[in-house]
Amino acid sequence: MNHLNEEAESKPQLKLEFEIKERDFSVAGEAASKVKKTLQQLGLMPEAVRNIAIIIYEAVMNVVIHATHGQLKVIIIPEQVTVLTEDEGIGISNVELAMKEGYSTAPLEIREMGFGAGMGLPNIKQCSHKLNVKSQVGVGTVLEAIVYLSSKDRKS
Amino acid sequence: MNLRDIQRILKAEVLCGEQWLSREVKTGFGCDLMSEMLAFAGSHTLLITSLTNEHVIHTAEIMDAVGVVYVSGKQPAKEIIEKANHNNIPLLSTPFLMFECCGLLFTSGLKGCKRGNP
Ligand SMILES: Nc1ncnc2c1ncn2[C@@H]1O[C@H](COP(=O)(O)OP(=O)(O)OP(=O)(O)O)[C@@H](O)[C@H]1O
Ligand SMILES: [Mg+2]
Q: Which of A58, A71, A103, B77 has the greatest number of CB atoms lying within 10 Å of its CB?
């Protein structure tokens, strides 16, 4: 399941990568926090930073909760930030249904931790300009979300 | 309204972030679901929750929450308080239960969050 944003790959960029290990419930928060600090240092405005952090948190949490393991890549170029998660897992049989607010297959013990509202994918959609989810049942899922940066998003 | 007012109204104990209590609070959001919180993320929001795990702290950091109030006198573990402190997130604990806590803040003039219009 290889998917690369070719445009983003060919320009000068900053690339951050994180390994998402099985049942690692802390990695989402840690990755979001780390990228958030990097983007703040690059001078991005709070709203853009928050949107990107939310996308990362929700996407990585989905890999941990619903898939087995995977990878997060965050590619930063001046014009846009691309968040890419690739996982191995059960996959999503109906992506359109999964995108619906409130739809969740999260088990009880996950709900008790505060997840399973069925709002993760809708949040990602809300926070990104472009969202692409490709999934193969029994194989895995690739999620690519893009946030375009205008000059207003950059302080400097 | 600032966090100092919130603390007084809720008779809350300050678990960490005493130095940030002058922070302005514009809206409140009571919930135990992370994605719900993130869906309504806006600036100057106070999170009110009964969940004391680390995910609440991550969520508060990501959404730039002004602080977190734990209801029913709940208190997170020491490491969680340290994590919040490290991330500049003030934590309060109120003896009031969720409904009363939200009611007290609402009648004191704190507004709720609105979707897409934080
Ligand atoms: N990476 C993934 N692999 C397999 N299934 C997934 C993946 N991501 C999402 N899903 C499926 O899509 C559903 C909806 O995802 P969404 O993130 O919107 O909600 P949730 O994760 O169940 O709850 P929340 O995100 O609110 O905590 C999930 O319940 C799950 O069935
Ligand atoms: Mg989710």
A: A58
Distance CA B115, CA A30 (A): 26
CB of A95 within 6 A of ligand 1: the answer is no
Atom number, ligand 1, closest to the C-alpha of residue A110: 27
Rg (CA), chain B: 12
Instruction: Closest CB to B51: pick one of A32, A57, A114.
Output: A114
Helix (H, G, I), strand (E, B) or coil at B79: helix
State which residues form the domain around A37.
6-153
> Taking CB atoms and an 8 Å limit, are B35 and A123 in contact across chains?
yes
pLDDT in tens, A23-47: 999 999 999 999 999 999 999 999 9
Domain count, chain A: 1
Three-state helix/strand/coil letters over chain A:
CCCCCHHHHHCCCEEEEEEECCCCCCHHHHHHHHHHHHHHHCCECHHHHHHHHHHHHHHHHHHHHHEEEEEEEEEEECCEEEEEEEEEECCCCCHHHHCCCCCCCCCHHHHCCCCCCCCHHHHHHHHCCEEEEEEECCCEEEEEEEEECCHHHECC
* CATH number assigned to the domain comprising residue A86: 3.30.565.10
Quick one: B3-108 is in which CATH superfamily? HprK N-terminal domain-like (3.40.1390.20)
In a domain, A1, yes or no: no
Distance B30 CA to ligand 2 centre (A): 19
Instruction: Establish if A144 belongs to a structural domain.
Output: yes
Task: Flag whether residue B64 sits within 8 Å of chain A, measured between CB atoms.
Answer: yes
Q: Where are the domains of chain B?
A: 3-108
| A56 CA → ligand 1 middle, Å | 14
pTM summary value: 0.93
What dihedral angle (degrees, nearest 10) is formed by the CA atoms of A18, A24, A29, A31?
Answer: -10
